[in-house]
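User: For my dataset I need records formatted as: sequence, then structure tokens, nothing else. Please produce one.
Assistant:
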Amino acid sequence: MGKAEADTIRSWEELSHLYESKVFSVTSFRERRQRILREIVPGAVADVGCGPLGLMLSEICRLPKTIAIGSDSCLEMIVQSRNKTESCDVRYVVADNRQLPFPSSSMDTIVSINSFVPESREDVELMFQQSKRVLRKGGRLVAMLPSFEMSLIARDTWRMPVRLDLKGHREWETSGWQCFYTEADIHELVRKNRFPDYRLDRVAFSTPEEVTQIRRVYGDSVRGIPDALFADYPLFEHLLIAER
């Protein structure tokens, strides 16, 4: 393991204890979890990059005829998620999204909630390739992907002091550089990996509860932004549902 990778793991370990105060988490909101659950094909369902909250896995494990699997490259994330899902039958594994430890054609659904955010676009390619490999025919990738279009809105309209890599479609976040996605990026990834059918939805976060969490997480960076601007230009992400 190189120094850069070791530093990244340490930063995620530290973040796992501060997650709710540092990360805008889609799964914190029940309606958003329900939106994702509606897309899941029952069977073997892996939440890859599951993080520490356990909220999504707590609901996946209740689906009929479903085996819930949580994976994350950070052991501390898994420890905390396991503690929060003790009443559920969830199987956990330490795993890198670039090299999933599941046999080919073994999963009915891969769920990724903002976990395909490596430092390099080459690693994005690997993550999509791995998802395609482990899905059964008729299985489904359900991925919430951070929007680079939103990064531009945050910089130009919200006037947030965000650090962007315009060429690589990356944003400097809590743990360092992370790859974000334009709609064109996603269409190209789906085409390259030959998913036979897919749809792409834009999910906007504009309820009072969501705006409150945005303000709490981003703090001084959004303090002067009026609620009306959040209503006109809400934070949004891309939801990809791709059939194998």
